Amino acid sequence: MRSPFSRSVSAGAIALSIAVSIAALAACDDDVDTFGKAVDGGAGDATAHDAGVPDAALDAGDAVDGSAAASARLLVTAVDFVGGASELLVANLATHAVDGRLAIASTAPTTVASGGRLFVVARDTGAVVELDADAPWNRSATWSIDRASVDGGTRAIASTASVVATDTKAYALFADSNTVSILGAPGSDAGGVGARVDLARYVQAGDSDGVVDPLGGVYVPARRLVYLVLRNVDTTTAATTPGDRVACAGTKSTVVGIDVDSDTFVDLNGDADGTALDLAGVNPVAVAYDAAGDRLLVAHAGCGLGGIDDASDADVAGRLVGRQIEELSLFTNAVRTLLDATDLGTPVRFVVVGDHRAVVQLMTDDAVRRTFVWDPSSTTLGRAITAPDAFSVDPSGKLYGVERQFTHDGGADTFDAVSVRIADGRKATLLTLPFTAREPFVASAEVVTR
Q: Which of 14, 141, 324, 358 is surrounded by the fewest CB atoms within 10 Å?
């Protein structure tokens, strides 16, 4: 069916990066304040950025003036499992120094850049912190989402969490909840949430966990709509299928639309039954909006078949289906498979750089990560490139991320912020990141520009 909204898109390349969140981690102590105070770093060499700053001041969380002027920064979250907390480190890509850091009382943080706004979401405690756009080591607003009692969270830690921001509000969603929490405008520290949208109406028959498993979404200003991608998989089967894959449950992954002016669902599929649009792939893990093509690009992990195929009487237990990258046209509502990833691996990073350039990182079934340049108009991958462990992209066509340097003398490993030029794969080391934890686990890396 034709979309009920007229086509209106902006020209030019896009630079979107929506990555799969890290797997569920251990929950933190609920008695600890959710987010700590900000600490600014010095403007000197990053490997000795604490010089001149007493350790006691850093430990106490006292603010220390640092370099705030930057056109591009790399935001890195790292988890300290021993201490039961995390930190956000803000690296200045122009000066190769650390501008500041923010202590996070969570072992499951996710950074989100949406609609020109920056957030850190605690997938365990439910806290959502908006970061100051000019000094992202400072908080501009904090919301506390009671996942357990109010929003129906079914697990101690949500496998993914996301925020979709508009100019006046933001929508926060967790993978284990049918509730979308509506947050306020930039800088409006509400403490709680103003309203909620219930996704329970989209739970499908055969999905025994009773949750639509919302992944995330995008805001399209020209349509005044937020598009949310719902996985609609039965997560209770993940540990019972070969390869620990989610079992195919006969459900459809879907896209639903929310009118941002009324916070109500809109009918996306015209005369067809229901109001959602069905996707061809199964178990989506990443979504991006291509404004030039007026389409959603969705990457899927797929699901595992089980038992005997009725038609062929063959044993198909564990056979993977629905692992692909597809497009959903918001103009025609048509879906089309762009890349069949059945034999390639699960997409774990998906970066759209321009009309004919994207970067795809795949994890093979034996847990090996491989990264490729890809033209989304082609059905085959392009050349391989070496990418950091966690990375994001800036509009110039460079990957920025974190690379772990292993030591073999009993000392602590170090972590470098690096850049990789997509055009030729050339890598440059920018600075060593001075995490406070001895054994940090790098959870995410996000490039932001001003």
A: 14
Measured between alpha carbons, how far is residue 448 from residues 102, 113, 196, 395, 434 in Å?
16, 8, 29, 10, 20
pTM of the model: 0.82
Which residues are CB-contacts of 332 (< 8 A; sequence separation ≥ 6)?
Answer: 2, 3
Q: What is the pLDDT of residues 194-245, one digit of tens each?
A: 688 999 999 999 898 899 999 999 999 999 999 999 999 988 876 555 556 7
| Strands 324-329 vs 414-421: parallel, antiparallel or unpaired | unpaired
**What is the torsion angle, in degrees rounded to the nearest 10, for the CA atoms of residue 215, residue 114, residue 172 and residue 166?**
-120
Token pair of 360, please? Answer: 């795809």
Sign (positive/negative) of CA torsion 55, 57, 61, 64? negative
CB 419 within 8 A of CB 398: yes
Q: What is the helix, strand, coil percentage profile of the chain, to 5?
A: 5, 45, 55
Residue with token string 């595992």: 304
Contacts of 185 (CB under 8 A, 6+ apart): 167, 168, 169
pLDDT tens-digit map of 179-191: 999 998 776 655 5
